[in-house]
Design brief:
Blueprint: H1 8-26, H2 31-38, H3 42-54, E1 58-63, E2 73-77, E3 83-89, E4 93-99, E5 105-112, H4 119-136, E6 143-150, E7 153-154, E8 161-163, H5 174-177, E9 185-189, H6 190-201, E10 208-213, E11 217-223, E12 226-227, H7 259-262, H8 264-271, H9 276-284, H10 288-311, E13 315-319, H11 328-338, E14 351-353, H12 360-376
Parallel strand pairs: 3-6, 6-9, 10-13, 13-14
Antiparallel strand pairs: 1-2, 3-4, 4-5, 7-8, 10-11, 11-12
Helix pairs in contact: 1-3, 2-3, 6-12, 9-10, 10-11
Length: about 375
């Protein structure tokens, strides 16, 4: 639609959105640069900047170096103008995070609490969310909403957790989880929430598989820069791909699933009572026993990635609890294992380490509220 077919109010709204969007994208920009980049008159830019500043969305943060004339003011968004809350529910703990308008963590907290589908747990969850929200933002009106990531498949309408064997609560209504949270809420599958976080921070991602190496393995599929849900919301659940015929029994009931060989829990079972910090210290020092265990783990992961790449020739994002332990030598080893077979020898898939580690699903669950807000300004 051309500007001639729009009302004055619609044109003003579009201009406001364009100006804010550019400032958001550039992070710091001058009024003159906004005018040039948007091909918008200085008067119109000035009016929009004044309105955005009065509404608390942008601020002036100083001056750029002079290029011969008057110094231009640096303009940025007020990144804490609004706050979103993300929650990740495990069987035995809760991870909570507050994020700003750039999706960066303001505050985070982990609380030990065993999941239970009863009023006591729902009340506890509500209180913990409110504690974090009140610590992160003194004005409750500036809390955008609460996203909850769960280890389970969510129904297409978001009203029910269709499959949650790990939480032992398949069929739970999502409204029960949110009953004591006085903000708009959404509930999302943890792996898909983690994928949202990676897409948010890496705009160049087009097609990718995310592997969430948490206590229990998770995964998600990204196609055309968007999380793929599938007809029944099961798309991307690669953790239940069978990589070893008649292998270890998975919680899903099958044998030989990737979950049983590449989750952090499966690795812990192999290494015994030592901590992951000690395990990786021993691996890096060349200990033969633990290096062999780690090499086997990477081999299983490489097998899975090869299988994935026969379906979608894409990049791989490694996120979750184990991700921060991986270094460049591990990535090189994975690539070598993946390309060791002739059919895969010319594959050029990047293996990317995620930015958030175990907290990724909490951040990703909160991001839809941030996106909706910045799109509407």
């Amino acid at each position: 639609m051309s500007n001639l077919g729009m009302t004055t109010i619609e044109v003003k709204k579009i201009n406001r959105s364009k100006v804010y969007g550019l400032i958001y994208q550039e992070r710091s920009v001058s009024k003159q640069a906004i005018s040039q980049k948007l091909n918008m008159g200085l008067t119109t830019v000035t009016q929009n900047l004044k309105a955005l500043e009065e509404d608390g969305w942008i601020c002036r943060t100083g001056y750029y170096e002079s290029t011969g004339g008057r110094k231009a003011q640096a303009i940025e968004i007020v990144r804490n103008a609004r706050t979103a809350i993300g929650v990740f529910l495990f069987k035995r703990k809760i991870i909570l995070a507050a994020i700003d308008l750039y999706g960066e963590i303001i505050l985070q907290r982990t609380v030990e609490k065993r999941f239970s589908a009863d009023e006591e747990y729902y009340q506890f969850l509500g209180k913990e969310v409110m504690k974090l929200a009140n610590s992160a933002e003194s004005n409750p009106d500036k809390i955008l909403g609460v996203g909850i990531a769960v280890q389970g498949i969510i129904s297409t309408d978001g009203s029910e957790i269709k499959y949650a064997k790990l939480l032992e609560q398949t069929g739970l209504k999502t409204e029960d989880l949110t009953r004591y949270i006085p903000y708009e809420c959404i509930v999302e599958h943890d792996s898909k929430a983690a994928a949202y976080a990676e897409i948010w921070n890496q705009s160049e991602i087009f097609d990718a598989i995310i592997l969430l190496l948490n206590k229990n393995l998770g995964s998600a599929l990204i196609v055309d820069g968007k999380v793929h849900h599938g007809k029944s919301m099961y798309s991307g659940t690669i953790e239940h791909m069978r990589i070893i015929s008649d292998g270890k029994t998975c919680y899903c009931g099958a044998k030989g699933c990737l979950e049983t060989y590449c989750s952090a829990e499966s690795l812990q079972h192999e290494i015994g009572e030592i901590s992951f910090d000690d395990f990786f210290r021993l691996v890096r020092s060349g200990d033969s026993k633990y290096s062999a265990i780690w090499d086997e783990y990477l081999s299983n992961l490489a097998d899975a990635i090869r299988n994935i790449n026969t379906v979608i020739d894409s990049d791989i994002i490694i996120s979750g609890f184990l991700a921060p332990y991986l270094d460049t030598s591990d990535i090189d080893a994975l690539k070598k294992k993946i390309t060791s077979l002739p059919f895969f020898c010319d594959r050029n898939a990047d293996i990317i380490i995620g930015q958030y580690g175990e907290i990724a699903p909490a951040v990703g669950a909160a991001l839809p509220f941030v996106k909706k807000t910045i799109d509407r300004i």
